[in-house]
Design a protein that fits this description.
- The protein is α+β, with helices and mostly antiparallel strands.
- It has 2 helices and 6 strands; from the N terminus they run E-H-E-E-H-E-E-E.
- The chain starts with a strand and ends in an 18-residue tail after the last strand.
- The relative contact order is 0.27.
Length: 94
């Protein structure tokens, strides 16, 4: 199950996110989303857990829990929505 975690401290790294969820079961991946321009955390991330029961327990118990001084929000991740492609802008003056 893919889990969305928000309201993370900017200091939280992938390994920290993995450690938050490890007591609830196996964690396949844990990834904090990084801003391309600033190379800093965007304050949210995703955790993948193969066991659905363990993932649901982690969601129930960690939603609203304090992590690095902030109350995190934990939900099942929704599928990514398809967005229309951005138009390509012509950079020439003429």
């Amino acid at each position: 199950m893919n889990i969305y975690v928000s309201n993370l401290s900017f200091a939280v790294q992938d390994e920290d996110l993995r450690e938050f969820f490890a007591p609830y079961g196996e964690v396949s991946t844990a990834r904090v989303v990084i801003d391309r321009d600033t190379n800093r955390s965007r304050g949210f991330g995703f955790v993948e857990m193969p066991d659905t029961a363990a993932a649901n327990k982690a969601i129930a118990e960690l939603n609203g829990a304090m992590a690095d001084g902030r109350a995190i929000r934990v939900n099942e991740a929704r599928p990514r929505e398809e967005r229309p492609a951005r138009p390509a802008y012509n950079k020439s003056r003429w």
